[in-house]
Amino acid sequence: MKKESLTIKKNGSHEIEIKKSRFICTMVRIQSEDQAKQLIEQVTKENSKANHNCYAYMLGDDDHIQRESDNGEPSGTAGVPILEVLKKNELHNVLAVVTRYFGGIKLGAGGLIRAYSNATSTTIDQLGIVKLVNKQQLTLTIDYNQFDKLKYFLENEAIPIEDTQYTDQIQVVIAVSDDHFNALISAITNLLSDQFTYDKGPYKIFEVPYSREARQQDER
After folding, report:
1. Which GO terms describe its cellular component (predicted)?
2. Among 108, 123, 131, 210, which lies 20 to 30 A Cα-Cα from 86?
């Protein structure tokens, strides 16, 4: 079972301007190096008149593939800063390409590092972060007179109902992570006086909104 990880909420791009230079960061979810290379080539082709198309990406459950390129900028001033922002935000399977249109004013090494870092971090802020969580589908079989009580409980616990089937009884399909499984079953058992049954289904990956505040709480 794949472990939980963070990634961008959606693909997209964002532009900032620093001393008349335009920095356009394009960020995309990726699943392979071949895909990353194709996307880098595509962005570079679309911005053929740009001075630089620098990039970084991380791949794999443990980020064992990490690549970066300064694409003509002074060594260590573009690719590494982009990569460091991805690492700081713990973004997995993500490619960031930062395109620079030179505005005529040199930024110096420190200025370039800050510019490429800011272009990447502000794009992450714009696109948002989600946590990819493995949850197991769970089918709860209940009597009709229990449905309102169960539905109210699930709403209060912020557990969405994936599906509902009506036969001689009601089958309510939800999803739960392994960490919360025992506590949830215990709570539903108390709620319904143990008058229900459940069946475990397959695991699925769900995208859960994630924020810096949530990350800070996780680290405490």
Report:
1. cytoplasm
2. 108
